[in-house]
Design brief:
The complex is a heterodimer. By secondary structure, chain A is α+β, with helices and mostly antiparallel strands. Helix content of chain A is 39%, strand content 18%. In chain A, α1 packs across α2 and α4 crosses α5. The longest helix of chain A is centred in the last third of the chain and has 21 residues. In chain B, the strands form three sheets. Chain B has a seven-stranded mixed sheet, sandwiched between helices. A three-stranded antiparallel sheet of chain B has the order 9-10-12. Classes of the chains: A alpha+beta, B alpha/beta.
Chain lengths: 151, 388
Protein backbone atom coordinates (compact mmCIF):
# COMPACT_ATOMS: atom_id res chain seq x y z
CA UNK A 1 0.00 0.00 0.00
CA UNK A 2 1.45 3.30 -1.06
CA UNK A 3 0.30 6.81 -0.32
CA UNK A 4 0.60 9.62 -2.85
CA UNK A 5 3.18 12.34 -2.26
CA UNK A 6 0.36 14.73 -1.37
CA UNK A 7 -1.01 12.36 1.29
CA UNK A 8 2.43 11.97 2.80
CA UNK A 9 2.95 15.73 2.73
CA UNK A 10 -0.33 16.41 4.54
CA UNK A 11 0.43 13.63 7.02
CA UNK A 12 3.97 14.83 7.73
CA UNK A 13 2.99 18.50 7.75
CA UNK A 14 -0.68 18.66 8.66
CA UNK A 15 -2.29 22.05 7.97
CA UNK A 16 -4.52 23.63 10.57
CA UNK A 17 -3.95 21.04 13.27
CA UNK A 18 -4.70 21.84 16.91
CA UNK A 19 -7.35 22.88 19.34
CA UNK A 20 -9.68 25.87 18.85
CA UNK A 21 -11.28 26.78 22.20
CA UNK A 22 -13.32 29.67 20.74
CA UNK A 23 -14.80 27.72 17.84
CA UNK A 24 -18.49 28.28 17.16
CA UNK A 25 -18.90 25.05 15.19
CA UNK A 26 -17.54 21.71 16.41
CA UNK A 27 -18.15 18.25 14.97
CA UNK A 28 -16.65 14.91 15.99
CA UNK A 29 -17.11 11.70 14.01
CA UNK A 30 -15.77 8.14 14.13
CA UNK A 31 -14.92 6.24 17.28
CA UNK A 32 -11.90 4.83 18.99
CA UNK A 33 -12.98 1.24 18.49
CA UNK A 34 -12.75 1.62 14.72
CA UNK A 35 -9.42 3.33 15.02
CA UNK A 36 -10.23 6.82 13.79
CA UNK A 37 -11.80 9.90 15.30
CA UNK A 38 -11.92 13.29 13.63
CA UNK A 39 -12.81 16.52 15.37
CA UNK A 40 -13.43 19.59 13.20
CA UNK A 41 -13.56 23.05 14.76
CA UNK A 42 -14.57 26.21 12.89
CA UNK A 43 -14.94 29.89 13.42
CA UNK A 44 -17.80 31.09 11.26
CA UNK A 45 -18.51 34.80 10.77
CA UNK A 46 -21.26 36.15 8.49
CA UNK A 47 -21.73 32.66 7.06
CA UNK A 48 -18.07 32.43 6.09
CA UNK A 49 -15.68 29.89 7.57
CA UNK A 50 -12.90 32.24 8.62
CA UNK A 51 -10.89 29.56 10.40
CA UNK A 52 -10.93 25.76 10.59
CA UNK A 53 -8.84 23.41 12.68
CA UNK A 54 -8.82 19.67 13.27
CA UNK A 55 -7.67 17.04 15.71
CA UNK A 56 -7.47 13.44 14.52
CA UNK A 57 -6.74 10.05 16.03
CA UNK A 58 -6.09 7.69 13.17
CA UNK A 59 -3.86 6.45 10.40
CA UNK A 60 -1.84 8.50 7.93
CA UNK A 61 -4.80 8.81 5.55
CA UNK A 62 -7.09 9.97 8.37
CA UNK A 63 -4.69 12.78 9.27
CA UNK A 64 -4.11 13.75 5.62
CA UNK A 65 -7.81 13.83 4.71
CA UNK A 66 -8.58 15.94 7.81
CA UNK A 67 -5.82 18.34 6.90
CA UNK A 68 -6.95 18.61 3.28
CA UNK A 69 -10.60 19.05 4.28
CA UNK A 70 -9.72 22.06 6.46
CA UNK A 71 -7.84 23.59 3.54
CA UNK A 72 -10.80 23.04 1.21
CA UNK A 73 -13.40 24.71 3.45
CA UNK A 74 -11.38 27.61 4.82
CA UNK A 75 -12.66 30.92 3.45
CA UNK A 76 -15.71 29.22 1.95
CA UNK A 77 -19.34 29.95 2.79
CA UNK A 78 -21.27 27.44 4.88
CA UNK A 79 -23.30 26.50 1.80
CA UNK A 80 -20.14 25.87 -0.21
CA UNK A 81 -18.65 23.80 2.60
CA UNK A 82 -21.76 21.65 2.71
CA UNK A 83 -21.08 20.66 -0.89
CA UNK A 84 -17.67 19.23 -0.01
CA UNK A 85 -17.59 15.55 -1.00
CA UNK A 86 -15.21 12.83 0.02
CA UNK A 87 -14.34 12.51 -3.64
CA UNK A 88 -13.15 16.11 -3.75
CA UNK A 89 -10.93 15.46 -0.71
CA UNK A 90 -9.50 12.35 -2.34
CA UNK A 91 -8.88 14.10 -5.64
CA UNK A 92 -7.13 16.96 -3.90
CA UNK A 93 -4.82 14.37 -2.33
CA UNK A 94 -4.10 12.66 -5.69
CA UNK A 95 -6.07 9.60 -4.61
CA UNK A 96 -6.12 7.16 -1.71
CA UNK A 97 -5.50 3.41 -1.56
CA UNK A 98 -8.85 1.54 -1.74
CA UNK A 99 -8.76 0.48 1.92
CA UNK A 100 -8.37 4.12 2.95
CA UNK A 101 -11.32 5.58 1.07
CA UNK A 102 -13.37 5.55 4.29
CA UNK A 103 -11.00 8.18 5.72
CA UNK A 104 -12.14 10.68 3.11
CA UNK A 105 -15.77 9.81 3.92
CA UNK A 106 -15.01 10.52 7.55
CA UNK A 107 -13.50 13.91 6.64
CA UNK A 108 -16.63 14.87 4.70
CA UNK A 109 -18.77 13.78 7.64
CA UNK A 110 -16.66 15.71 10.13
CA UNK A 111 -17.11 18.94 8.17
CA UNK A 112 -20.84 18.28 7.93
CA UNK A 113 -21.07 17.51 11.65
CA UNK A 114 -19.39 20.83 12.49
CA UNK A 115 -21.88 22.69 10.28
CA UNK A 116 -24.81 20.86 11.90
CA UNK A 117 -23.47 22.08 15.23
CA UNK A 118 -23.23 25.62 13.84
CA UNK A 119 -26.90 25.63 12.87
CA UNK A 120 -27.96 24.05 16.15
CA UNK A 121 -26.15 26.72 18.16
CA UNK A 122 -28.20 29.31 16.36
CA UNK A 123 -31.45 27.52 17.08
CA UNK A 124 -31.89 26.45 13.46
CA UNK A 125 -32.99 22.91 12.71
CA UNK A 126 -30.16 21.60 10.51
CA UNK A 127 -32.06 18.62 9.17
CA UNK A 128 -33.75 20.34 6.15
CA UNK A 129 -30.49 22.06 5.17
CA UNK A 130 -27.89 19.42 5.89
CA UNK A 131 -29.81 16.14 5.79
CA UNK A 132 -28.12 13.27 7.58
CA UNK A 133 -25.81 14.67 10.18
CA UNK A 134 -23.31 11.92 9.80
CA UNK A 135 -23.62 11.13 13.46
CA UNK A 136 -26.52 8.73 13.18
CA UNK A 137 -24.66 5.56 14.09
CA UNK A 138 -21.70 4.50 16.12
CA UNK A 139 -19.39 3.24 13.44
CA UNK A 140 -21.21 3.45 10.19
CA UNK A 141 -18.45 4.68 7.96
CA UNK A 142 -17.43 2.33 5.27
CA UNK A 143 -14.16 0.49 5.54
CA UNK A 144 -15.33 -1.22 2.38
CA UNK A 145 -12.61 -2.18 0.05
CA UNK A 146 -12.51 -0.32 -3.18
CA UNK A 147 -16.15 0.67 -3.47
CA UNK A 148 -15.22 4.17 -4.46
CA UNK A 149 -11.80 3.21 -5.54
CA UNK A 150 -9.46 5.80 -6.93
CA UNK A 151 -7.06 5.12 -9.76
CA UNK B 1 20.89 12.86 18.44
CA UNK B 2 21.81 13.10 14.78
CA UNK B 3 19.56 11.37 12.23
CA UNK B 4 20.42 7.73 11.64
CA UNK B 5 18.95 4.61 10.11
CA UNK B 6 17.77 1.99 12.61
CA UNK B 7 16.34 -1.30 11.41
CA UNK B 8 14.17 -2.51 14.29
CA UNK B 9 11.92 -4.97 12.49
CA UNK B 10 13.99 -8.14 12.77
CA UNK B 11 10.88 -10.26 13.37
CA UNK B 12 9.72 -9.30 9.87
CA UNK B 13 13.00 -10.27 8.29
CA UNK B 14 16.73 -10.04 8.93
CA UNK B 15 19.65 -8.93 6.79
CA UNK B 16 21.82 -11.69 5.32
CA UNK B 17 24.91 -12.26 7.41
CA UNK B 18 28.02 -11.55 5.25
CA UNK B 19 29.46 -14.95 6.26
CA UNK B 20 26.25 -16.58 5.00
CA UNK B 21 26.42 -14.75 1.69
CA UNK B 22 30.05 -15.68 1.24
CA UNK B 23 29.23 -19.35 1.74
CA UNK B 24 26.37 -19.07 -0.76
CA UNK B 25 28.24 -17.27 -3.52
CA UNK B 26 29.86 -20.30 -5.24
CA UNK B 27 26.42 -21.90 -5.60
CA UNK B 28 25.08 -18.76 -7.26
CA UNK B 29 28.02 -18.68 -9.67
CA UNK B 30 30.35 -21.55 -10.51
CA UNK B 31 28.78 -24.44 -8.57
CA UNK B 32 25.46 -24.47 -10.34
CA UNK B 33 25.04 -28.22 -10.71
CA UNK B 34 21.77 -29.95 -9.98
CA UNK B 35 22.22 -32.02 -6.82
CA UNK B 36 20.42 -34.98 -8.41
CA UNK B 37 22.91 -35.45 -11.27
CA UNK B 38 25.53 -38.16 -11.62
CA UNK B 39 28.48 -36.07 -12.82
CA UNK B 40 30.86 -34.37 -10.47
CA UNK B 41 29.54 -30.81 -10.91
CA UNK B 42 26.34 -31.94 -9.17
CA UNK B 43 28.28 -33.59 -6.34
CA UNK B 44 29.44 -30.34 -4.80
CA UNK B 45 25.82 -29.13 -4.70
CA UNK B 46 24.72 -32.38 -3.13
CA UNK B 47 27.50 -32.40 -0.55
CA UNK B 48 26.93 -28.77 0.40
CA UNK B 49 23.23 -29.43 0.86
CA UNK B 50 23.89 -32.41 3.12
CA UNK B 51 26.33 -30.36 5.15
CA UNK B 52 23.61 -27.71 5.56
CA UNK B 53 21.11 -30.38 6.61
CA UNK B 54 23.52 -31.48 9.32
CA UNK B 55 23.85 -27.91 10.62
CA UNK B 56 20.11 -27.25 10.60
CA UNK B 57 19.56 -30.52 12.49
CA UNK B 58 22.29 -29.83 15.06
CA UNK B 59 20.70 -26.57 16.19
CA UNK B 60 17.52 -28.42 17.18
CA UNK B 61 19.05 -31.74 18.27
CA UNK B 62 17.47 -33.65 15.39
CA UNK B 63 19.03 -36.24 13.09
CA UNK B 64 19.95 -34.83 9.66
CA UNK B 65 17.68 -37.44 8.09
CA UNK B 66 14.72 -35.81 9.80
CA UNK B 67 15.25 -32.43 8.12
CA UNK B 68 13.57 -31.57 4.80
CA UNK B 69 14.14 -28.29 2.99
CA UNK B 70 11.16 -26.25 1.82
CA UNK B 71 10.52 -22.90 0.16
CA UNK B 72 9.57 -21.00 3.31
CA UNK B 73 8.11 -21.22 6.80
CA UNK B 74 4.58 -21.03 5.44
CA UNK B 75 5.18 -24.03 3.24
CA UNK B 76 6.52 -25.98 6.21
CA UNK B 77 3.40 -25.07 8.21
CA UNK B 78 1.13 -26.13 5.35
CA UNK B 79 3.07 -29.34 4.95
CA UNK B 80 2.71 -30.11 8.65
CA UNK B 81 -1.01 -29.45 9.02
CA UNK B 82 -2.33 -30.63 5.66
CA UNK B 83 0.29 -33.38 5.52
CA UNK B 84 -0.69 -34.93 8.83
CA UNK B 85 -4.45 -34.39 8.73
CA UNK B 86 -4.50 -36.07 5.31
CA UNK B 87 -1.94 -38.74 6.20
CA UNK B 88 -2.94 -42.39 6.10
CA UNK B 89 -1.11 -42.82 9.42
CA UNK B 90 -3.61 -40.42 11.01
CA UNK B 91 -6.30 -43.12 10.60
CA UNK B 92 -9.14 -40.76 9.81
CA UNK B 93 -8.98 -38.65 12.97
CA UNK B 94 -10.71 -35.35 12.25
CA UNK B 95 -9.77 -33.01 15.07
CA UNK B 96 -6.96 -30.44 15.11
CA UNK B 97 -6.06 -28.24 18.07
CA UNK B 98 -4.24 -24.98 17.59
CA UNK B 99 -4.33 -21.52 19.18
CA UNK B 100 -6.01 -18.23 18.42
CA UNK B 101 -2.70 -16.36 18.17
CA UNK B 102 -0.93 -18.45 15.53
CA UNK B 103 0.63 -16.96 12.43
CA UNK B 104 -1.72 -16.79 9.43
CA UNK B 105 0.25 -19.63 7.83
CA UNK B 106 -1.33 -21.86 10.49
CA UNK B 107 -4.66 -20.09 10.99
CA UNK B 108 -5.59 -19.87 7.33
CA UNK B 109 -4.47 -23.45 6.75
CA UNK B 110 -6.58 -24.63 9.69
CA UNK B 111 -9.54 -22.72 8.27
CA UNK B 112 -9.01 -24.37 4.89
CA UNK B 113 -9.00 -27.77 6.62
CA UNK B 114 -12.28 -26.87 8.33
CA UNK B 115 -13.82 -26.26 4.91
CA UNK B 116 -12.72 -29.78 3.95
CA UNK B 117 -14.65 -31.17 6.92
CA UNK B 118 -11.97 -31.29 9.63
CA UNK B 119 -12.78 -29.85 13.05
CA UNK B 120 -10.47 -27.31 14.63
CA UNK B 121 -10.28 -26.02 18.19
CA UNK B 122 -8.60 -22.63 18.53
CA UNK B 123 -7.30 -22.48 22.10
CA UNK B 124 -7.56 -19.19 23.93
CA UNK B 125 -4.37 -17.88 25.56
CA UNK B 126 -3.75 -16.02 28.80
CA UNK B 127 -3.21 -12.26 28.92
CA UNK B 128 0.48 -12.75 28.16
CA UNK B 129 -0.24 -14.83 25.10
CA UNK B 130 0.65 -18.16 26.66
CA UNK B 131 -1.15 -21.46 26.17
CA UNK B 132 -2.34 -22.96 29.44
CA UNK B 133 -1.71 -26.68 29.79
CA UNK B 134 -5.03 -27.41 31.52
CA UNK B 135 -6.93 -25.66 28.74
CA UNK B 136 -5.10 -27.72 26.15
CA UNK B 137 -5.70 -30.97 28.06
CA UNK B 138 -9.43 -30.27 28.25
CA UNK B 139 -9.61 -29.64 24.51
CA UNK B 140 -8.14 -33.05 23.64
CA UNK B 141 -10.72 -35.50 22.26
CA UNK B 142 -10.49 -39.17 21.30
CA UNK B 143 -10.37 -38.09 17.66
CA UNK B 144 -7.69 -35.39 18.12
CA UNK B 145 -5.09 -36.01 15.43
CA UNK B 146 -2.72 -33.15 16.03
CA UNK B 147 -1.79 -30.25 18.27
CA UNK B 148 -0.07 -27.25 16.67
CA UNK B 149 1.16 -24.53 19.02
CA UNK B 150 3.61 -21.85 17.96
CA UNK B 151 6.96 -21.88 19.79
CA UNK B 152 7.13 -18.10 20.10
CA UNK B 153 4.70 -15.46 18.92
CA UNK B 154 5.75 -13.12 16.12
CA UNK B 155 3.88 -10.05 17.37
CA UNK B 156 4.40 -10.08 21.13
CA UNK B 157 7.33 -12.46 21.47
CA UNK B 158 5.82 -14.71 24.14
CA UNK B 159 7.51 -18.12 24.31
CA UNK B 160 5.15 -21.02 24.99
CA UNK B 161 5.84 -23.91 27.41
CA UNK B 162 6.74 -26.17 24.50
CA UNK B 163 8.39 -28.94 26.55
CA UNK B 164 5.28 -29.33 28.71
CA UNK B 165 2.97 -29.34 25.71
CA UNK B 166 5.22 -31.86 23.95
CA UNK B 167 5.21 -34.14 26.99
CA UNK B 168 1.42 -34.04 27.24
CA UNK B 169 0.95 -34.77 23.54
CA UNK B 170 3.42 -37.64 23.61
CA UNK B 171 1.62 -39.17 26.61
CA UNK B 172 -1.69 -38.90 24.79
CA UNK B 173 -0.24 -40.25 21.54
CA UNK B 174 -1.06 -37.07 19.62
CA UNK B 175 1.23 -35.62 16.96
CA UNK B 176 2.71 -32.30 18.14
CA UNK B 177 3.72 -29.66 15.62
CA UNK B 178 5.25 -26.31 16.48
CA UNK B 179 5.77 -23.29 14.24
CA UNK B 180 9.26 -22.32 15.41
CA UNK B 181 9.87 -19.69 12.73
CA UNK B 182 10.44 -16.94 15.33
CA UNK B 183 12.16 -19.16 17.88
CA UNK B 184 14.71 -21.25 15.99
CA UNK B 185 18.14 -19.70 16.33
CA UNK B 186 16.92 -17.26 18.97
CA UNK B 187 16.03 -19.53 21.90
CA UNK B 188 17.10 -23.14 22.60
CA UNK B 189 15.08 -25.67 20.59
CA UNK B 190 15.50 -29.39 21.30
CA UNK B 191 13.09 -31.63 19.43
CA UNK B 192 14.08 -34.69 21.46
CA UNK B 193 13.91 -33.21 24.96
CA UNK B 194 10.76 -31.26 24.08
CA UNK B 195 8.98 -34.23 22.44
CA UNK B 196 8.34 -32.32 19.23
CA UNK B 197 7.13 -34.41 16.28
CA UNK B 198 7.07 -31.82 13.52
CA UNK B 199 8.65 -28.35 13.49
CA UNK B 200 8.73 -25.48 10.97
CA UNK B 201 11.54 -22.99 10.45
CA UNK B 202 12.39 -20.21 8.02
CA UNK B 203 15.75 -18.97 6.78
CA UNK B 204 15.23 -15.23 6.63
CA UNK B 205 14.51 -14.85 10.34
CA UNK B 206 18.04 -15.97 11.19
CA UNK B 207 20.11 -13.93 8.73
CA UNK B 208 19.82 -16.44 5.91
CA UNK B 209 18.08 -15.46 2.65
CA UNK B 210 14.34 -15.33 1.97
CA UNK B 211 12.78 -18.18 0.03
CA UNK B 212 14.15 -21.07 2.05
CA UNK B 213 12.69 -22.94 5.00
CA UNK B 214 12.82 -26.38 6.50
CA UNK B 215 10.64 -28.85 8.29
CA UNK B 216 11.70 -31.39 10.90
CA UNK B 217 9.65 -34.57 10.74
CA UNK B 218 10.40 -37.14 13.43
CA UNK B 219 11.58 -40.45 12.06
CA UNK B 220 8.66 -42.75 11.30
CA UNK B 221 6.09 -40.04 10.66
CA UNK B 222 4.74 -39.97 7.13
CA UNK B 223 3.05 -36.81 5.92
CA UNK B 224 0.85 -36.66 2.87
CA UNK B 225 2.89 -35.01 0.13
CA UNK B 226 2.07 -31.34 -0.57
CA UNK B 227 4.22 -30.80 -3.65
CA UNK B 228 4.41 -33.83 -5.92
CA UNK B 229 6.95 -34.33 -8.65
CA UNK B 230 10.51 -35.56 -8.62
CA UNK B 231 12.07 -37.59 -5.87
CA UNK B 232 13.93 -34.79 -4.09
CA UNK B 233 14.01 -34.69 -0.29
CA UNK B 234 13.53 -38.46 -0.17
CA UNK B 235 10.32 -38.12 -2.11
CA UNK B 236 8.69 -35.88 0.47
CA UNK B 237 9.04 -32.52 -1.24
CA UNK B 238 9.47 -32.35 -4.99
CA UNK B 239 11.31 -29.56 -6.80
CA UNK B 240 14.96 -28.94 -7.64
CA UNK B 241 16.66 -27.86 -4.45
CA UNK B 242 17.51 -24.20 -3.94
CA UNK B 243 21.11 -25.09 -3.16
CA UNK B 244 22.50 -21.60 -2.57
CA UNK B 245 19.76 -20.69 -0.11
CA UNK B 246 19.90 -24.05 1.58
CA UNK B 247 23.66 -23.58 2.04
CA UNK B 248 22.87 -20.14 3.46
CA UNK B 249 20.37 -21.59 5.91
CA UNK B 250 22.92 -24.18 7.02
CA UNK B 251 25.61 -21.56 7.57
CA UNK B 252 23.17 -19.33 9.46
CA UNK B 253 22.27 -22.29 11.70
CA UNK B 254 25.96 -22.99 12.32
CA UNK B 255 26.60 -19.38 13.28
CA UNK B 256 23.57 -19.30 15.59
CA UNK B 257 24.73 -22.52 17.26
CA UNK B 258 28.02 -20.85 18.08
CA UNK B 259 26.70 -17.43 19.03
CA UNK B 260 23.16 -17.86 20.34
CA UNK B 261 24.09 -17.67 24.00
CA UNK B 262 26.09 -14.50 23.52
CA UNK B 263 23.42 -12.99 21.22
CA UNK B 264 20.68 -13.74 23.70
CA UNK B 265 22.53 -11.94 26.49
CA UNK B 266 23.25 -8.95 24.24
CA UNK B 267 19.68 -8.68 22.90
CA UNK B 268 18.15 -9.12 26.35
CA UNK B 269 20.23 -6.20 27.59
CA UNK B 270 19.25 -3.97 24.66
CA UNK B 271 15.59 -4.96 24.92
CA UNK B 272 15.58 -4.30 28.66
CA UNK B 273 16.79 -0.77 28.03
CA UNK B 274 14.23 -0.19 25.29
CA UNK B 275 11.33 -1.66 27.27
CA UNK B 276 12.26 0.27 30.41
CA UNK B 277 12.45 3.48 28.39
CA UNK B 278 9.24 3.09 26.42
CA UNK B 279 7.11 1.93 29.34
CA UNK B 280 8.10 5.14 31.16
CA UNK B 281 5.99 7.05 28.59
CA UNK B 282 2.60 7.88 30.08
CA UNK B 283 -0.22 5.44 29.32
CA UNK B 284 2.05 2.93 27.61
CA UNK B 285 2.15 -0.80 28.28
CA UNK B 286 4.35 -3.75 27.34
CA UNK B 287 2.45 -6.53 25.56
CA UNK B 288 3.36 -10.20 25.85
CA UNK B 289 5.01 -12.05 28.72
CA UNK B 290 7.22 -9.99 31.04
CA UNK B 291 10.02 -12.59 31.12
CA UNK B 292 9.18 -15.57 28.87
CA UNK B 293 9.75 -13.69 25.64
CA UNK B 294 12.05 -13.67 22.64
CA UNK B 295 15.27 -11.79 23.47
CA UNK B 296 14.86 -9.10 20.78
CA UNK B 297 11.11 -8.58 20.70
CA UNK B 298 9.73 -5.42 22.33
CA UNK B 299 6.01 -4.83 21.82
CA UNK B 300 3.86 -2.07 23.22
CA UNK B 301 0.49 -0.37 23.15
CA UNK B 302 0.61 3.40 23.33
CA UNK B 303 -2.70 4.99 24.24
CA UNK B 304 -4.50 7.68 22.18
CA UNK B 305 -2.42 7.26 19.03
CA UNK B 306 -2.81 4.93 16.09
CA UNK B 307 -0.16 2.43 15.05
CA UNK B 308 0.08 3.20 11.35
CA UNK B 309 0.69 6.90 12.01
CA UNK B 310 3.30 5.90 14.52
CA UNK B 311 5.14 3.63 12.09
CA UNK B 312 5.03 6.25 9.30
CA UNK B 313 6.42 8.94 11.57
CA UNK B 314 9.15 6.64 12.87
CA UNK B 315 10.04 5.99 9.23
CA UNK B 316 10.50 9.76 8.74
CA UNK B 317 13.11 9.42 11.48
CA UNK B 318 14.84 6.49 9.78
CA UNK B 319 13.39 3.87 12.14
CA UNK B 320 11.82 0.69 10.73
CA UNK B 321 9.09 -0.65 13.03
CA UNK B 322 5.74 -2.41 12.70
CA UNK B 323 2.25 -2.40 14.18
CA UNK B 324 -0.78 -4.64 14.57
CA UNK B 325 -3.30 -1.82 14.31
CA UNK B 326 -6.42 -2.16 12.16
CA UNK B 327 -5.08 0.28 9.59
CA UNK B 328 -2.17 -2.04 9.03
CA UNK B 329 -4.41 -5.05 8.57
CA UNK B 330 -6.70 -3.29 6.10
CA UNK B 331 -9.80 -4.11 8.11
CA UNK B 332 -11.77 -2.81 11.08
CA UNK B 333 -10.00 -5.15 13.45
CA UNK B 334 -6.55 -4.88 14.94
CA UNK B 335 -4.39 -8.01 14.90
CA UNK B 336 -5.91 -11.26 16.14
CA UNK B 337 -2.97 -11.66 18.50
CA UNK B 338 -3.62 -8.40 20.35
CA UNK B 339 -7.33 -9.19 20.57
CA UNK B 340 -6.42 -12.76 21.53
CA UNK B 341 -4.55 -11.59 24.63
CA UNK B 342 -7.66 -9.68 25.67
CA UNK B 343 -6.74 -6.14 24.66
CA UNK B 344 -9.64 -3.91 23.62
CA UNK B 345 -9.80 -2.54 20.08
CA UNK B 346 -9.10 0.89 21.54
CA UNK B 347 -5.82 -0.18 23.15
CA UNK B 348 -4.75 -2.46 20.29
CA UNK B 349 -4.94 0.37 17.75
CA UNK B 350 -1.89 1.90 19.41
CA UNK B 351 0.33 -1.14 18.98
CA UNK B 352 4.01 -0.86 18.16
CA UNK B 353 6.51 -3.67 17.64
CA UNK B 354 10.25 -3.05 17.73
CA UNK B 355 12.35 -6.16 17.19
CA UNK B 356 16.06 -5.82 17.73
CA UNK B 357 18.82 -7.77 16.04
CA UNK B 358 22.57 -8.16 16.31
CA UNK B 359 23.17 -5.15 14.04
CA UNK B 360 21.52 -2.87 16.60
CA UNK B 361 23.56 -0.98 19.18
CA UNK B 362 22.90 0.81 22.45
CA UNK B 363 23.08 4.08 20.54
CA UNK B 364 20.28 2.78 18.31
CA UNK B 365 18.15 2.21 21.40
CA UNK B 366 18.92 5.71 22.70
CA UNK B 367 17.99 7.09 19.30
CA UNK B 368 14.70 5.11 19.16
CA UNK B 369 13.79 6.34 22.64
CA UNK B 370 14.52 9.95 21.79
CA UNK B 371 12.66 9.97 18.46
CA UNK B 372 9.78 7.78 19.64
CA UNK B 373 9.14 10.14 22.52
CA UNK B 374 8.95 13.08 20.09
CA UNK B 375 6.70 11.19 17.68
CA UNK B 376 4.34 10.13 20.47
CA UNK B 377 4.14 13.74 21.68
CA UNK B 378 3.44 15.01 18.15
CA UNK B 379 0.71 12.46 17.52
CA UNK B 380 -0.86 12.96 20.91
CA UNK B 381 -0.91 16.72 20.37
CA UNK B 382 -3.11 16.14 17.32
CA UNK B 383 -5.24 13.43 18.94
CA UNK B 384 -8.71 14.48 20.13
CA UNK B 385 -8.74 11.66 22.68
CA UNK B 386 -5.46 12.34 24.44
CA UNK B 387 -5.84 13.40 28.08
CA UNK B 388 -2.96 13.33 30.51
Amino acid sequence: MNYSKKVMDHFAHPRNVGDMPDANAVGTVGNQKCGDIMKMMMKIENDIIVDCKFQTFGCGAAVATSSMATELVKGKTVQEALQLSNKAVMEALDGLPPVKVHCSVLAEEAIRAALVDYYKRQGIDPEPIVGCSGECSECHHDHGHGEEEEE
Amino acid sequence: MEDRFVYADNAATTPIDPRVLEKMMPFLTTEYGNASTLYSLGHSSHDAMEEARKEVALLMNADPGEIYFTGCGSESDNMALRGWMHSKQNKGKKHLITTCIEHHAILHTAQALEKEGFEVTYLPVDKHGMVELEVLEKAIRPDTAMVSVMFANNEIGTVNPIAEIGKLCREKGIIFHTDAVQAYGHVPVDVKAMNIDILSISGHKINAPKGVGAIYIRKGILLNQLITGGGQEKGRRAGTENIASIVGLGEAARIKRETMEEETAYLRKLSRKLIDGVTKFPQTILTGHPTERLPGTCSFCINAIEGESLVLMLDFNGICASTGSACSTGSLDPSHVLLGIGLTHEIAHGSLRLTLGMQNTEEDVDYILERLEQVVKTLRAMSPIWHE
